[in-house]
Amino acid sequence: MNTAQPLLRIDRLCRQRAGRIAVQDLCLDVDRGEVLGLLGVNGAGKSTTLSMIAGAMRPDSGTIHLNGEDFLECPELGQRLIGWLPERAPLWQELTVLEHLQAHGRLHGLNGAALRQATEAMLERLELGNLARRLAGVLSQGQRQRLGLACALLHRPALLILDEPANALDPVQVASLRQLIREEAARGTAVILSTHLLAEVTAVCGRVAILHEGQLRHEGMVDASDVQALERRFFDIAMNGRSQAA
Ligand SMILES: Nc1ncnc2c1ncn2[C@@H]1O[C@H](COP(=O)(O)OP(=O)(O)OP(=O)(O)O)[C@@H](O)[C@H]1O
After folding, report:
1. CATH 3.40.50.300 applies to domain 8-245
2. What are the residue boundaries of the structural domains of the chain, listed by start?
3. What is the H or E stretch that residue 21 is in?
4. Which atom of ligand 1 approaches the CA of 44 most closely?
5. Rg of the chain's alpha carbons, rounded to an integer?
6. Would you give the DSSP letter of residue 138?
7. How many angstroms separate the alpha carbon of residue 16 from the centre of ligand 1?
8. SS (H, E, C) 53-110
9. What is the dihedral of CA 41, 153, 188, 63, to 10 degrees?
10. Which among 98, 200, 188, 111 is positioned nearest to 151, based on CA atoms?
């Protein structure tokens, strides 16, 4: 690992979707062991940003460096370094929970005892053990979300990208998710967490970035004891943006 560089550096990232600007001139760094919250109203550009960082969507311009290396030139870096839970976890209906984990592990180069250990660890960590033989097609929304998270974590990525991970989780699972994010950060994983829930940001994020209409409108440290300060900042950006647009 090249620890002199931030784990992730994105510089002047731009992307249009359906002829409209979705992300514009976005610059962000994320360090190892840091949890960055990504906030913004619907359509602000969060998922587009995360898709580009995860390597699933190519930017129109700008650069992405992972561990100091040019990710757009070497997309295979993502296989090793990134774990991504998209907004809707992409699951194969006809595969079981265990088969999903095995398939993901193989895609990331795990096999034999290492694959067995990794899948068992994830079944336990995401409380999926009793669902191991169940088909993904019959899982509840929250169970699907946990399976998506297990797949994202299986290969121990250096950068964990979570797009609305608390969606459909019950309060007990939300608490477990927070704990899991803290544990990942403590072991040095960089985490980007996109959410609509401001309390989620104050609970686990050290830093927050607020997007509006594809642009970075605020970036700063999070005061965990002051959710109202974040709320004021968020609404100010959202409402000003709306009145400007009107
Ligand atoms: N599949 C698509 N085709 C065309 N335009 C899209 C598509 N998905 C998103 N967009 C547009 O890209 C812009 C950014 O959307 P994006 O999904 O990145 O925002 P978001 O912040 O993740 O929103 P949300 O909170 O609703 O998930 C919006 O203007 C949106 O309309």
Report:
1. yes
2. 8-245
3. strand 20-30
4. 21
5. 18
6. G
7. 10
8. HHCCCCCCEEEEEECCEECCCCCCHHHHHEEEECCCCCCCCCCEHHHHHHHHHHHCCC
9. -60
10. 98
Tokens of 54: 């995860």
Give 134-178 pLDDT, tens digit per residue. 999 999 989 999 999 999 999 999 999 999 998 888 899 899 999
Instruction: Name the residue of 14, 16, 41, 48 whose CB sits within 8 Å of the most ligand 1 atoms, as the mutation to test its pocket.
Output: 48
Q: Does ipTM top 0.90?
A: yes
Using alpha carbons, select from 158, 157, 159, 162 the residue that is nearest to residue 146: 162
User: Which residues have CB under 8 Å from 119's CB, separation 6+?
Assistant: 98, 101, 102, 105, 154
Q: Which tokens belong to 223?
A: 């005061």
